């Protein structure tokens, strides 16, 4: 599968580049804003394409053409303001959905946030971020695409365990970024995740079993 990765320079994105770049089943094209980022990602096995989520839908559609799937793991980051959260996490995701439809790329996996679908459980200090994720997810759900929405809990940089819990509603908990990346990769071709959204935290089930039990 030819996978187009948005957010390749982020922490989850880097792990996805490594996984996809070393896969015998998939290849990866990593979207970057700055050409100077290309060399490091190409060393991990990715092809790179320069494009910007704040650009036009037609430009993004041109970038994703000939791909089989899109993984959207982009985020504005904790050091930016609510304006960038709106432009990247919400409008950027919405543009990529439109671009996928224009380019005929049917499979779309997005990394959201735990309980983004449930306003009553949003972190008060991060409400703009959760609102952006909430409406980006809704736009994807209402599209024509074969989507999967992965909503991970608090993200950790410790090594992954390969053990997760995946369900429609889970309480607040954490998960290593490595396990999120592994789950996103597994979801690409797991039919139990098609047209579904789920929370994801560390747990007791192997990733394949957790996804098959959704």
Automatic annotation (TrEMBL):
Q: Report domain NAD(P)-binding positions.
A: 7-190
Task: Using the record, list the residue span of the signal peptide; answer none if the entry has no such feature.
Answer: none
> What protein name applies here?
SDR family oxidoreductase
Q: Which organism is it from?
A: Fictibacillus marinisediminis
